[in-house]
């Protein structure tokens, strides 16, 4: 039976059996295997904050089985939670929706959330639950990618950097021609791109790239929501043709691993320096437990600093292969244990392909946890855990661009101030002896975006209206 001719019954049976059998077994994803207890390293830590001095020392903190659970795993293993008086139970979440909803419905005290979820919850965007979510720090930047299936490769699509090498300034036009050409030959059920959550920066990136190439994502293909561990299986059975997700689920797809696709582009090639995950809490948590919140942010900053050090990255990549975290270990027992998690953490990133060519590129900015590599421009005292409120405005422009909200909010700056708590971050970081940028907003230069279109937060509406392809764009017509 062809992968592209499954019946609905076949598909449901496959999701139930194949996902359970392959994804849950080989990747060790289940609801009851979260890391528990204290390691010897954690027990050796002398707390600098007494638990009795905190309003709520016992916390339940979520995480999702992707590479960016690394700071949570390190904070647990190395005792950074314990250092700041916290007794944290880590709770593995099935998806980014449960990670977000766990906060909103009170099951979790804190959890990583996708960029966009915080402000979209504030404004009640389509696909986002309305709730007063807050974040004061970024967990990491980059660390994600777009995967396309083998059929797209066979049609002629290639990694974005090869379009740049071959076509230079005409790369977007060339990619758009190939991209539209592929989908034009597909039936409607074979025009599907998956992302992890509506309001995720991944959804905006998928739409942004296609629109920049002249392909209207509202007309040419559909975007669906799929949890990260189910991405590979769904491409294998033909339920979708491409996806965007955090590592290691792109690396897992390439030849030499699952062999079902190749990496088209890393997120950093769409927007260099973009924020990925934020440490989310409800506003009431900050108000009711201010000292506890400070301890939590300090522990996570230290964990991000640890993950950022080059000498620690092998350890980090190994730790998150544990079944308590991603469970992403190679099936070949002779392969390095970090074969799947290592490329995103250590930076030797392989785009894959089906022609035998080695497309491994070494880069210091594959995932940024704290220290910002020299190839990225940065403001004085900037480090990656610092939140720029101007970036929450960019996310709001995309929510408006794609019709998730009817228009750009008139009170956008007030929403950003209440949701992205840069003010709190500065205070907490200062208590740790860490300097932070003095401003909340910065201009994103044209050279950091794939289409060379910069973002000035002083004119978000003008920026939004500058895009020809968008929801509710004016329709041009001519009268004879």
From TrEMBL:
Q: Does the keyword Cell inner membrane apply?
A: yes
Q: Where in the cell is it found?
A: Cell inner membrane
Q: Does the keyword Transit peptide apply?
A: no
What does the similarity note say?
Answer: Belongs to the CmpA/NrtA family.
Q: Which UniProt keywords apply?
A: Cell inner membrane, Cell membrane, Ion transport, Membrane, Transport
UniProt-listed Pfam families: NMT1_2
Q: What is its main location?
A: membrane
- Highest taxon, organism lineage: Bacteria
**Name by which UniProt lists this protein:** ABC transporter substrate-binding protein
């Amino acid at each position: 039976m062809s992968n592209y001719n499954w019946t609905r019954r076949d598909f449901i049976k496959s999701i139930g059996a194949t996902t359970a059998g392959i994804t849950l077994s080989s990747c060790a994803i289940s609801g009851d295997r979260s890391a528990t207890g204290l390691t010897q390293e954690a027990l050796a830590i002398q707390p600098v904050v007494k638990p009795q001095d905190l309003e709520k020392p016992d916390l339940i903190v979520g995480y999702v089985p992707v590479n960016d659970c690394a700071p949570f795993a390190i904070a647990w293993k190395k005792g950074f939670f314990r250092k700041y008086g916290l007794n944290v139970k880590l709770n593995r979440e099935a998806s980014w929706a449960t990670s977000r909803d766990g906060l909103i419905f009170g099951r979790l005290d804190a959890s990583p959330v996708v960029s966009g979820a915080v402000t979209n919850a504030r404004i009640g965007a389509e696909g986002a639950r309305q709730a007063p979510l807050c974040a004061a720090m970024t967990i990491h930047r980059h660390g994600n990618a777009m995967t396309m299936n083998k059929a797209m490769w066979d049609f002629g699509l290639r990694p974005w950097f090869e379009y740049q090498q071959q076509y230079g300034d005409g790369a977007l036009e060339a990619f758009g021609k190939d991209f539209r050409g592929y989908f034009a030959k597909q039936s409607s059920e074979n025009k599907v791109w998956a992302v992890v959550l509506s309001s995720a920066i991944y959804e905006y990136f998928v739409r942004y790239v296609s629109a920049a190439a002249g392909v209207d994502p509202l007309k040419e293909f559909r975007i669906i929501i799929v949890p990260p561990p189910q991405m590979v299986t769904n491409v294998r059975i033909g339920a979708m043709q491409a996806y965007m997700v955090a590592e290691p689920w792109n690396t897992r797809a390439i030849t030499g691993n699952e062999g079902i696709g190749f990496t088209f582009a890393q997120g950093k090639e769409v927007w260099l320096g973009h924020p990925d995950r934020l440490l989310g809490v409800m506003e009431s948590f900050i108000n009711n437990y201010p000292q506890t919140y400070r301890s939590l942010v300090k522990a996570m900053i230290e964990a991000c600093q640890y993950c950022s050090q080059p000498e620690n990255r092998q350890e980090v990549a190994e730790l998150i292969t544990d079944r308590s975290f991603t469970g992403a270990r190679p099936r070949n027992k002779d392969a390095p244990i970090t074969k799947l998690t290592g490329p995103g953490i250590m930076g030797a990133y392989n785009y894959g392909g089906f022609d035998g060519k080695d497309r491994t590129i070494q880069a210091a900015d594959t995932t940024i946890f704290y220290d910002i590599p020299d190839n990225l421009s940065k403001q004085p005292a900037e480090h990656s855990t610092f939140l720029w409120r101007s970036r929450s405005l960019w996310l709001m422009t995309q929510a408006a661009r794609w019709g998730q909200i009817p228009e750009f909010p008139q009170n956008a700056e007030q929403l950003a101030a209440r949701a992205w708590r840069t003010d709190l971050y500065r205070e907490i970081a200062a208590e740790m002896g860490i300097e932070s940028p003095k401003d909340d907003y910065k201009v994103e230069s044209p050279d950091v975006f794939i289409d060379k279109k910069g973002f000035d937060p002083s004119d978000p509406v003008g920026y939004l209206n500058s895009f020809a392809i968008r929801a509710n764009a004016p329709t041009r017509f001519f009268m004879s």
